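Need a sequence for this fold. Nothing fancy.
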């Protein structure tokens, strides 16, 4: 199993590790011009998921998504770029 698995209508770039914390970061994007529901599943014990900006920093008002069965369900808008950061559990 890979570090993170993606299911649904979005594309993803390989996992990037943050040097300071070791938290994995994934860059997802919706590339078809439609809405996409995706499930992102961690292949490791994750404690939570937080949205990040492009330089992979959590914004001041970042909200954490709840994990269910080791993954998170996301709804992406057309051409949306989304960068979730997994906290190791």
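Here you go.
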């Amino acid at each position: 199993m890979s570090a993170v698995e993606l299911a649904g209508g979005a594309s993803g770039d390989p996992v990037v590790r943050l040097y300071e914390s070791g938290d994995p970061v994934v860059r997802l994007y919706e590339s078809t011009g439609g809405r996409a529901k995706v499930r992102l599943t961690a292949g490791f014990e994750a404690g939570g998921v937080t949205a990040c900006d492009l330089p992979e920093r959590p914004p001041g008002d970042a909200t954490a998504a709840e994990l269910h069965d080791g993954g998170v369900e996301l709804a992406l808008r057309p051409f949306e770029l989304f960068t979730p950061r997994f906290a190791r559990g």
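For context: Strands lie at 4-8, 11-12, 16-17, 24-25, 28-29, 36-42, 46-52, 64-65, 71-76, 81-88.
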